[in-house]
Design brief:
mainly alpha, Growth Hormone, Chain: A, globular
């Protein structure tokens, strides 16, 4: 998952070294999202996540994505070729992210929330790692790209020791209409709407929080490489806090229910989205504290939406249902990732993240309705 934000993490450095247009900076992330959506649509229509050996599928995807990311170093950063390679990386991510969730769900024994919380926590930490590479590499963007590619190649190698769990269903026959159940069955539909509200906020926050912190610190500290490195490391901590949030959310959701945890997490993260801008350009440590809280809660609910889908789906098509969910969510992120810089240009960073708050509100309503539906009895062993 280090590949996802490998290019986004170096945006501040590239803006200093090359003339990087704002649209290109946005495309570093949104091209991955677009590729991921294309990959997930193909996977959902042809049930790829359920019909092929999950381990080999994930290994091949990671290898290809690592190669595409490494090839960025052969082109000018602002070139169309780089955007194309980011798109290819996104397509391959469809065989990494979702297949990983299916593999984890196959080992769940009354602790689906914790299993997927652990996996998404790892994915979150991986997404944050490029910012750490950026800080340790002295804001050398080539180092960040190369290190991210190496980490993905190592992950592909590690898949050799992964086994499918006892809960993995037999590979089903191809069924073109299977993907549409995600929207025709009420419980699945509500869980997916909740996930869409969550995704309206998540990836726009992840894509721009580093740029936001870098801009704020340059106003209050100094405008030099040390400040940039500090901003990169803080961004890693903020995003990495999501790993703790995912694990904590997994433990709590298995005990108190999926809907309870998702509603609480979206309530806190939505509040942070509304208020964090008022700390822009102010005292450093209060801003860092609020951002860490936001980083922990903005993704704490993510694995619980996936756990809900896994528990509400027909076992043989869990992979397909997870694919449909993530495909719709990441398609939505294409809007918010590009909205944030436009709002920054219009009203500044003080209000830019506030446009993300309506997403959690919609998600809360959807999960509240799911909580009071008969389908809630199938979640978290009847805890809802």
């Amino acid at each position: 998952m280090a590949l996802w934000f490998s290019a986004s993490a170096v945006v501040p450095a590239l803006r200093e070294s090359v003339d990087l247009p704002p649209l290109t900076a946005s495309l570093f992330t949104s091209a991955v999202q677009a590729g991921f959506v294309v990959g997930t649509i193909l996977s959902a229509l042809f049930n790829l996540a359920d019909r092929f050996d999950a381990r080999r599928f994930r290994m091949a995807s990671a290898r290809t994505a690592a190669a595409a990311n490494a090839l960025i170093l052969a082109f000018e950063p602002a070139s169309v070729a780089v955007i194309g390679l980011r798109f290819v990386t996104g397509v391959c991510m469809a065989g990494i992210y979702i297949v990983g969730m299916k593999l984890a769900a196959g080992w769940a024994r009354g602790n689906m929330g914790l299993m997927l919380g652990g996996l998404v926590g790892g994915l979150t930490l991986g997404s944050a790692i490029p910012h750490m590479f950026n800080a340790l590499g002295g804001i050398d963007w080539e180092f960040t790209i190369a290190a991210s590619s190496v980490s993905a190649a190592v992950a592909a190698l590690a898949m050799m020791w992964v086994e499918e769990g006892p809960n993995t269903a037999k590979r089903p026959p191809f069924r073109l209409g299977a993907a549409f159940r995600a929207w025709t069955e009420r419980g699945l539909r509500l869980a997916n709407i909740g996930y869409l509200g969550h995704m309206w906020e998540l990836y726009a926050m992840w894509a721009w929080i580093g740029v936001f912190l870098d801009a704020s610190f340059r106003l209050t500290m100094s405008d030099d490489a040390n400040t940039a490195a500090f901003a990169a490391m803080v961004t890693f901590v903020v995003m990495g806090a999501g790993a703790i949030g995912c694990l904590g959310g997994g433990v709590l959701s298995d005990r108190f229910g999926r809907t309870t945890v998702t509603i609480m997490a979206m309530g806190v993260s939505g509040f942070c989205a509304l208020t964090v801008g008022f700390l822009f350009g102010g005292a450093v440590w209060p801003l860092i504290f609020v951002c860490i809280v936001w980083g922990a809660t903005v993704v704490a609910d993510s694995p619980q939406f996936s756990a809900s889908i896994a528990e509400l789906s027909e076992p043989a098509y869990v992979g397909t249902m997870l694919t449909v969910q993530t495909s719709a969510g990441f398609l939505l992120t294409l809007i918010t990732i590009h909205m944030v810089p436009l709002v920054v240009d219009l009203v500044g960073w003080q209000f830019a993240f506030a446009i993300l708050a309506p997403g959690p509100l919609v998600g809360i309503v959807a999960m509240w309705r799911l909580r009071h539906s008969p389908d809630a009895a199938r979640l978290a062993g009847g805890k809802g």
